[in-house]
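Before the break, one more example. Copy the sequence into your notebook; we will annotate it together after we see the structure.
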Amino acid sequence: MRKVHLIGALVGALALAISAVAVASPQFKQTVKASYTVKKAKQPAGLSVNLSATDPGAVPPGAQPGVKTVKLTFSGAAIDFKAVKLCTLPQDQAESCPPNTSIGSGTASANLVGTNATTGQKTVTQGLGQKVSAFAISGGIYLIVKGTSLPTTAILKASLSKKGVLSVNVERDLPVIPGGNKIVLTDFAVKIKKITKGSGKSRKEFITTPSCGKSKKYTIKSAFNYDDGSKKNITTTQKCTA
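Here is what the structure looks like once it is written out:
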């Protein structure tokens, strides 16, 4: 069972999408900032990912669609889980992962979207702060999101392929929130550390940057599926050196 802490009528969890779907206005905008911490090709590196969604045309303000799934493809990267210690605990116990399996951290911000029981109008509480912790697991990452504005916890189990494809099925991992409420994540920023194990020819690298081709740029592709049925594909690049 997924772990969720409840306070009164506010039920918290990290969510890019769940019930009471809001439809994006024409002003909805998704931005992606993603990069390696090292520009040199074929070197061990960390990752920096910053996702932000805004919708100035949402009525009421903050009632914007959330993401059901998101996939980031770090084209040409190599991932080796033999370079890191792995947390072997089940998802509902992820908060107890050993400190030596920690691979990163970050912050997030979310909106609580609900409906006024008396008027039937949509209500939004904006800017709920979140703290993000990342732990390595076999073939993926636990992303633990703890509220700082409210004492809430949610755990996402992201997959990470050996070829650098990070996939998060947010809708699958979220608990059911009663009362038609949902939390929509508006900002999510996480940094994954550069991690190596051993030295010389036997050295293993958790993340290795791609080759630096003729374009002299790394390519990172992002694919978003939102709970209003819309989709967005975004490509970002980063300068690299051979």
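Helices lie at 170-173. DSSP finds one helix and 17 strands in the chain. Try to locate both features in your own notes.
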